[in-house]
């Protein structure tokens, strides 16, 4: 956090490249500062006596006072020289708005500039940044008027930053900070989020990222930040173009976005799907209305009540049950055609008085009151907006639908109550807000077992029988098994195991055996030698295993280049890449997280269906062990497919491992 205070709360600012031409970036930045910054402001322009009526200097070194923040808008070739002057002057922080560095292949120039800055202890935002807006000043090249508020914006795209500012202005969302990260050559996204989480002006933080600079620091810093205030993420670059199949299912299943989702869940962040959801969630986070996942719908339109009830169920929220005494009180104010229940239909002739009386009766319910008004001849949206305003602090959200809906929105927003024009938008926002995961810190202590280290020593991948031995070393159950190099040996192993058995090829490299027609099930005593002869044409070595029944589950692991080791859980067998009901978690995985993986991937429902008594706890222990093993041994890719789960436990039957 060194010198970040000088970046966000400087007492003096110099703008290098402050042009006299109003269409130039340096001029726009300077004019924005001139109209917003109350500290000392210095334009740097060697060809001008003044800029916008303010005395100009040829170099920052010519300024008689100390400079906290230096903003650079000159061509990229000049930036190293300017940074040298900043170091000589003792500037504490810098914003490099100039583009044309690493983003266009000029890594060397970017490294040069940052190395110069580090000599002087200068913290640098950028380069290729749109600038920043703080409660004290606007150092961007936008003309947008910014409404002051309590939402912090952190963006990796300058263009999206401009759009979000326009969006905030249009929908009356107040901004505390807007920080364009640029190339993140020095100041990183996790540092900025941490800083804003400590800022009294900021209530919630919205972050647009295309990539994470340092996964380890992200996972270390963000849980503490999220405990202070909500952090919402929108990710760019979520699709995988041209992903090639790898030696394990993991290679084709694990896209960077899925791992990013797991990382956001780990740190307790909220991951949204689009900018529309960002706006809707911001409306809840801007205000202090208590919102829960239990909902009472109050409406004057039965159709809207039905539709929003469907949406509530689809989003995994709950419709609250109205207490009997409350139903009796509601019956006194409702027409005979309306039955007091949830959704509470006040009927089409409901006026302001009926809304007020209904809200007064349900006022004490500890739930979210979703109040919908469809404008009709006997009632207007503005009437009901004023009525709802009387119940601020009681978990109310307004839905205004009709000709005067915009005015009604403004009335509710001025009161500090979240308001929408579509109930579905409100429901999605409630779901995002109430389903926030608890933040966790992942402590990755490497404690490899000596025999496991010996087994993988100097190997790029494991043979399948070596992988089976590794499972046993880590306490993971396996079926009875053995490998044979002859028909007689295969017969002896199968006789010892008992029938029927499974026979499969045993290659030196990890392969998908089913695709090579290398697996034969239900092999009886009289067929062993014949099956061995068939399989040995593919690989000389053949594995024989006890044949199991039960649910086939896929458990995988990988080392992500950003966030490190990750565990994957989903449906097993040949359908793993077809169904793709895979859940992800960062290692190490604890037992409660393993349970969450099973619920998210629907494996829990499959295990508990029809009360078969399958040993779910054994599978949980297997997932936990795998999550530690891949960290201990620094495994690049692995999958166990399938893990057979039955009433006797969870058994790893086919294991493929690629060592990092």
TrEMBL record:
For this UniProt record, give its keywords in alphabetical order, as a comma-separated list.
ATP-binding, Ligase, Nucleotide-binding
Record keyword Ligase present: yes
Q: Which residues form the ATP-grasp domain?
A: 468-659
Q: Does the keyword Signal apply?
A: no
User: Any transmembrane segments, and where?
Assistant: none
State the InterPro entries in the record.
Acyl-CoA_Synth/Transferase, ATP-grasp, ATP_grasp_subdomain_1, CoA-bd, Ligase_CoA_dom, NAD(P)-bd_dom_sf, Succ_CoA_lig_flav_dom, Succinyl-CoA_synth-like
Superkingdom of source = Archaea
Q: Name one Pfam family in it.
A: ATP-grasp_5
- Molecular function terms in GO for this entry? acetate-CoA ligase (ADP-forming) activity; ATP binding; metal ion binding
Protein name according to UniProt:
Acetate--CoA ligase family protein
- Which species is this record about? Sulfolobus tengchongensis
């Amino acid at each position: 956090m060194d010198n970040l205070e000088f970046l966000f709360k400087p007492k003096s600012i110099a703008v290098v490249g402050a042009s006299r031409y109003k269409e130039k970036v340096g001029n726009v930045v300077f004019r924005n500062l001139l109209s917003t910054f109350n500290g000392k402001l210095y334009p740097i322009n060697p060809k001008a006596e003044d800029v916008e009526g303010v005395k100009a200097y040829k170099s920052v070194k010519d300024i008689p006072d100390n400079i906290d923040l230096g903003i650079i808008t000159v061509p990229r070739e000049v930036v190293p020289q300017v940074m040298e002057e900043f170091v000589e002057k003792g500037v504490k922080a810098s914003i490099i708005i100039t583009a044309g560095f690493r983003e266009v292949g000029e890594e060397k120039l970017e490294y040069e500039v940052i190395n110069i800055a580090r000599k002087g202890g200068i913290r640098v935002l950028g380069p290729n940044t749109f600038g920043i807006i703080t409660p004290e000043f606007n150092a961007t090249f936008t003309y947008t008027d910014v409404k002051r508020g309590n939402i912090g914006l952190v963006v990796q795209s300058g263009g999206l930053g401009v759009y979000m500012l326009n969006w905030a202005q249009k929908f009356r969302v107040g901004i505390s900070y807007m920080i364009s990260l640029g190339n993140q050559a020095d100041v990183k996204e996790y540092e900025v989020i941490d800083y804003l989480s400590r800022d009294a002006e900021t209530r919630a933080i919205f972050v647009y990222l295309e990539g994470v600079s340092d996964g380890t620091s992200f996972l270390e810093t963000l849980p503490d930040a999220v405990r202070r205030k909500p952090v919402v993420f929108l990710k760019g670059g979520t699709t995988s173009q041209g992903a090639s199949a790898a030696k394990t299912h993991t290679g084709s299943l694990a896209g960077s976005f899925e791992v990013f989702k797991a990382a956001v869940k780990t740190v307790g962040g909220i991951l949204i799907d689009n900018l529309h959801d960002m706006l809707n969630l911001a409306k809840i986070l801007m205000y202090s209305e208590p919102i829960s996942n239990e909902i009472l719908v109050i409406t004057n339109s039965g159709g809207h009540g039905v539709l929003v009830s469907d949406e509530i169920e689809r989003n995994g929220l709950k419709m609250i049950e109205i207490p009997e005494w409350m139903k009796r009180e509601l019956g006194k104010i409702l027409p005979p055609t309306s039955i007091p229940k949830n959704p509470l239909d006040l009927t089409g002739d409901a006026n302001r008085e009926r809304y007020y009386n209904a809200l007064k009766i349900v006022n004490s319910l500890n739930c979210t009151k979703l109040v919908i008004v469809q404008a009709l001849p006997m009632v207007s949206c503005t009437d009901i907006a004023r009525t709802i305003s009387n119940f601020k602090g009681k978990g109310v959200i307004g839905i205004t639908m009709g000709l005067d809906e915009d005015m009604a929105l403004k009335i509710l927003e001025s009161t500090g109550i979240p308001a929408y024009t579509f109930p579905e938008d409100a429901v999605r926002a409630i779901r995002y807000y109430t389903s926030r995961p608890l933040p966790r810190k992942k402590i990755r202590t490497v404690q490899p077992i000596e025999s496991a280290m010996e087994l993988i020593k100097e190997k790029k991948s494991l043979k399948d029988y070596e992988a089976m031995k590794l499972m046993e070393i880590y306490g993971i159950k396996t079926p009875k098994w053995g490998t044979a190099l002859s028909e007689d040996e295969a017969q002896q192993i199968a006789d010892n195991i008992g029938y029927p058995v499974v026979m499969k090829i045993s290659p030196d490299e990890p392969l998908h055996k089913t695709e090579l027609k290398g697996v034969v099930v239900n092999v009886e005593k009289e067929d062993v030698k014949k099956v061995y002869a068939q399989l040995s044409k593919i690989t000389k070595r053949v594995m024989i295993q006890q044949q199991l029944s039960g649910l086939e589950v896929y458990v995988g692991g990988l080392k992500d280049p950003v966030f490190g080791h990750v565990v994957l859980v989903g449906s097993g067998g040949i359908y793993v890449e077809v169904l793709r009901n895979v859940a992800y978690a960062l290692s190490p995985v604890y037992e409660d997280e393993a349970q969450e993986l099973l619920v998210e991937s629907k494996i829990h429902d499959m295990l508990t269906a029809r009360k078969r008594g399958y040993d779910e706890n054994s599978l949980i222990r297997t997932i936990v062990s795998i999550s530690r093993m891949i960290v201990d041994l620094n495994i690049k890719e692995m999958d166990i497919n399938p893990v057979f789960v039955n009433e006797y436990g969870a058994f790893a039957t086919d294991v493929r491992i690629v060592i990092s």
